[in-house]
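Repro case for the chain-ordering regression, as requested:
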Amino acid sequence: MTHSAVVVGGNRTPFAKAGGPFAEASNHDLLTSALDGLVARYGLAGQRIGEVAAGAVLKHSRDFNLTREAVLSSPLSPATPACDLQQACGTGLETTIYIANKIRLGQIDSGIAGGVDSTSDAPIVVSDPLRRTLLKANAARSTKDRIAPFARVRPRHLKPQAPSVAEPRTGLSMGEHQALTTERWGITRDEQDEIAAASHHKLAAAWEDGFFDDLVTPYMGVARDAILRPDTTIEKLAALRPAFGGPDGTMTAGNSTALSDGAATALLANEDWAREHHLPVLARFVDAEVAAVDHPGGDDLLLGPIAAAGRLLARQGLTLDDFALIEIHEAFASTVATTLKAWDDEDYCRSLGLDSKLGTIDRAKLNVTGSSLAAGHPFAATGARIVPTLAKLLQQKGPGSKGLISMCAAGGQGVVAILEAV
Amino acid sequence: MTGAPDTVGTPRPVVHLEGSPGLGAAFARALVPSRAKRARLPEHELTIHDFSQDRSRLAAYSRVCGFTLRDAVPPTWIHVLTFPLHVHLLGDADSTIRLAGAVHTSNTMTLHRPVLADEALDLTVHAEGLRPHRRGALVDLVGRAEVDGETVWSGVSTYLAQGMKAPGEPEQVERPSWEAVTPQARWRLSGDLGRRYRAVSGDPNPIHTNRVAAKAFGFPRPIIHGMWTHARALAALEGRLPERFAAGVDFVKPVLLPGTIGFHASTVDGGIVADVTNRDGSKPHLRMRIEET
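-- result from build under test --
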């Protein structure tokens, strides 16, 4: 028997630039803060929730149980279990899928999905030779054996290594990968700057309307997304120098997401359970699909979601026209532009094993309250930012309204999900 | 719990301090043990108005004590903010009790409502309740934090000035009974913890950081600040603390650094009792009681 899993609501911290107002906050602090706000909003203090699933992309080894530790710091009942899950930038959506699936199977009645990332408090790692030396010394039984391995340490081994966003197999950063894709798909600078400006303007309008008042709780003196530039214009964005793709590149700091700090959570529940507990029921979780491309073999790194969306729509018997709203995670403005182009490319879609192209969309349905370019992108948090945002928007549209979420992730992966207003 | 705020009708003279006092003359005096025999205390109260909390220091404090960095601050953090006033008061020319050599024996504090990190606080401290003890004289330093005239936090820190005299006969205080516990947690305290807590608390007492100074006061090694142990015990309970509560602690025996200690907590009618113990739970270092208010 399957149950109906619904999105009750969400809570997140505002998002801010790395090294900004949340520079002193750890992943634990940020995730706990997002949970605190969710608990306060839905009166969950002391309650046992079925399970909490969250994760972080940049994680300290001491945070092996990050989510459980945050639950224990939060006012939730200490009897609430938790797990850490990580699928790069898709984490916040993958945790939603995990929790929703457990609810649909009847294993739990309620659950919290989330994600957090602090690029400010990222782990610094020692070099591999030094790390191996330390492990050897630690395992040694005598003082002599303990000291001996250090004779092989060279000054260059002592340089700490900050985490990078480079793909392990290609050595290219995500921006460099996307620059190749941008070039290959012929995405123009204007197109990208237009998407970036629209993201800022739509997010600013949503804040002005009070749309985020029941989705965000202030933290550390920050009440709104701190990366947001309401007054940015295409002209201002056009003046920025290229950041990726060499001197003739079209990708800039303005049309790429900034390294960010923040945490987001979504409360999901069995529909009956939610109603019995007099909780809001915004949207039903319909289905989800993950996919991957062979980026080490030359495929476009961030087009993993295309195959995922194609297979998901085929399974559900839906077309892009069936969606009232579409959320495409803005890793880069050009990711959005290439995703739209790829959806409408018959040859490309067939090359992925799909029966046909997905087609075009009415751009008025896309990222209607802005997305990651304006809000910021604390990697693992973004999916859990989008889910409650879309659920609330769909509920405003009315029962039966469907929404599609498409997220690209490192490793050539893509995570896609469908919500439908109840 | 001792030291109810005094109810004498005449208001105390008030001395305002600009900002947080640093290592001024009074601060230096507070660190020089007193040679006077008769305990005497200043009459006035000290206040700092409109004190802005430093978020990055709060973050560092939270890391050292084990608190999650939240907008609502731990009550022990507000104690830390009033601490320079303690030092100044005990460094006053009218005071024969000095911080150096005084032993913090017990502490109570009440969080009257959640206090946010971005609230500016009016901090006030005065001394009262000078009384004899079989090993010297006891004094209460009574502090409060206000926001726009509303008392949001209050605290009483009781110090023992060893070897000093105060008028009257020592009150016979019965030691609360102690039964060994099985620790629920083991905390490993590193040798530099005193230095780390000094950096965030501003408590310069060298018995927490220096072996020679610790020996001079009869400890084989430096001891951790009692208020760290108090804060760490509160942090261990952070998920289950009510919004408004009173926390009382007795500092039973100092914790030597480095060291390994135990922690035990249980829910009782109307609150939580918690003990920081030695490693095996046979002896208490700190006993704490939390009550919802």
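Ordering looks correct now. Chain B is about 20% helix and 35% strand.
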